[in-house]
Amino acid sequence: MASRQRSERSTLERASLVRPVKIKRTLKWSLGAILLVLFLWFFVAYWMSTNDCSRNAVAPTNPMKAIRFCEYGSPDVLKFEDVEKPVPNDDQVLIKVRAASLNFIDPGVMRGPWPLRLMSGLRKPEKTGLGNDVAGQIEAVGKNVTLFKAGDEVFGVARPSLAEYVCARERALVIKPANVTFEQAGSVAWAGFTALQGLRKGNILPGQKVLINGATGGVGTFAVQIAKSFGTEVTAVCSTGKVDLVRSIGADHVIDYTKEDFTKGDQRYDVIFDNVGNHSFSDRRRVLTPNGTCVLAGIGGAGLHPETWGRIVGNLKADLLSRFVRQKFVSYVTKLDKEDLKLLSDLMQTGKVTPVIDRTYKLSETAEAMRYFEEGHARGKVVITVEQDNKL
Known about the structure:
Layout: H1 2-48, E1 63-68, E2 79-84, E3 92-101, H2 105-111, H3 114-120, E4 133-141, E5 153-157, E6 165-169, E7 173-175, H4 182-185, H5 189-201, E8 209-213, H6 218-229, E9 233-238, H7 243-248, E10 253-256, E11 269-274, H8 281-286, E12 288-296, H9 308-321, E13 328-330, H10 338-349, E14 357-362, H11 366-374, E15 381-385, H12 387-390
Parallel strand pairs: 8-9, 8-11, 9-10, 11-12, 12-13, 14-15
Antiparallel strand pairs: 1-2, 3-4, 3-6, 3-15, 4-5, 5-7
Helix pairs in contact: 5-6
């Protein structure tokens, strides 16, 4: 009897040892299979990633000039070439472009860092055009378009706008105010959206104290003026050479970051619009009011720099940590919004917002413009004009 019990116990012990081994073996093979599938997917997706550059080797039948990039890389990949002139569908308008501008996302689209390539094409960019902001004159309208007619001067969002002509939907455009130039209007949309929607995310109210960190770039110059239009007291942070600029667009106070760190001052702010992300979570908390909000609007100038990834991680960390304190650190995604576009148009028409333009380049000079833009020190917007090329 005892011998039989010992035999049964020994069998049970062996079974208990075999079960974990089988589980480990199953997990190991499952993980290996998953990794193999992912590798095969990546391999196939990488080599199937292509664009229309090879298909468009023949001369276009109805050509126009445009900026195109067939490979990822430096501004050298931006080519001024003949491409097929677009034809609007029933819900679109065709715009003769007069001006467009560069935005923070454009260098990333051009260079294609790996996280972005998951959306834009692993080996080659799937979309070879560039540019989002646009201002110009409508040349033709689709049969379902009711808000615009040929000859209307408009501005808004169209892709790709670095071209002589581009198609756009009605909801992405508004009429250009008569007192605004094409160059000014072509610089507004995406930077204006980012500033306006970010300040709104911070629950900005009249009478509040608002600090704009990074006040002299494309987004920053709009943020200063929009915050002032809401009736707030604005403090702008910039370098020595740009102090006069932010004062000229309405900043009540200016902090020269080369001489003073705003996080070490005595002033407290209801809203911090942080367009740089170069301070710690605790430092920014210290200068917020007890119920204040820090809007995580950006990570500094355009292009990739040594500090870029650190600032991205810092903003993600701040967003997470703020869930455990009264003060809020909020992030957001800029979106196309027709009503916001109308508001920006009204602010320009009434003189409350005037786009700040640093430099203007011809369409054929876009590569040079991008090199300057990537330095990250633009005073306002870098604008691309298309009128000169249209006259060739």
